[in-house]
Amino acid sequence: MRRDIISSENAEFQIIQAIKQSRSKRAETGEIFIEGIEAVKMAVRAKLEITRIIVAASRIQTGGSASRPNLSRWARDLISGKPQARVLEMADPLYEKLCDRSEPLEILVTAKMGLASLGELRLPEKPCILLFDRPSDTGNLGSTLRSINALGGDAFFILGHGVDPWDPKVIRSSLGAVFFTPIVSLRSNEELGGFIAEQKKRNGLRVWGTDSGGAVPLNKAGLCRPLLLIIGNEAKGMSVALKQFCDGITGIPLSGDVNSLNAACAAGICLWEVYRNSIHTLLS
Q: Would you call 266 helix, strand, or coil by DSSP?
């Protein structure tokens, strides 16, 4: 196990900071920055390759301190169980500079990222895929990833320029679900169109868009596998180009004074409807 001490904003510190802050640096290095105990645990559970384990120097030194006790047994076990990872003892002010929380957690890690491509995607016979059109909010993207994982979705597509699914805020808001769902960043509408045509021949895939003014109420749409469900951009909704691929457009009936739902909330409700219909099909 390689163990280093970082006491200044040296090149290694700057690389870690860039991985956290920069999408292009994450793409260049193939690494992601993970903050949050639950997210780290999920990364380990998903068998991601952990490249660095970063701790505040005062925690790892013998005796610790009253305000910053020694590392927990879980953290010590993580360090001993990942001999290939570099352990970085970082001066407390530098460590805190990397943390978003006002009370820094005991450990940070970097790991190899795992964005998939359409060619690598392995789908079941009747898949449920969610496509988010130009996502613009890290919390919405993370929450949607959490929902698709919890409700048995098979893949997550992103189309157009939007939030990076490996942004640390997305990882944290997804509670680590990002590590368990294949994520594909589509390059163009043409690539999506080719995929849809192939899947329609293979399994009769249906494509449903979502919109607050959708012609078919969600409870009447009968959403079920095989399905590609499209969630529109938070501010602009689903693009006109994507509507051409849709077999139908559904909306969630509302009874309050607002006329639309948060994108992540709408995605969760639609995914639950798919899940409910799938369970009903299995039991009938």
A: helix
Residue 66: alpha-carbon gap to chain centroid: 36
Domains and CATH numbers, the chain: 3-112 (3.30.1330.30), 118-283 (3.40.1280.10)
**pLDDT value of residue 127:** 97
Structure-derived torsion over alpha carbons of residues 281, 282, 283, 284, reported in degrees to the nearest 10: 40
State whether the Cα torsion 132-243-128-276 is positive or negative: positive
Which residues fall within 8 angstroms of residue 147, CB to CB, at 6 or more apart?
Answer: 153, 264, 267, 268, 271
For residue range 43-81, what is the model confidence (pLDDT) as tens digits? 999 999 999 999 999 887 655 454 556 899 999 999 999
Q: Round to the nearest angstrom and report the end-to-end CA distance of the chain.
A: 55
The token pair that represents 156 in the structure block: 């997550």
The pTM of the full predicted model, rounded to 2 decimals, is: 0.89
Q: What's the confidence (pLDDT) of residue 260?
A: 81
Give the type of residue at 39. Answer: A
Task: Find the helix packing angle between 263-283 and 138-150, rounded to 10°.
Answer: 10
Q: How confident is the model at residue 138 (pLDDT cuts 50, 70, 90)?
A: very high
Q: Which of 42, 57, 37, 176 is nearest to 108 (CA)?
A: 37
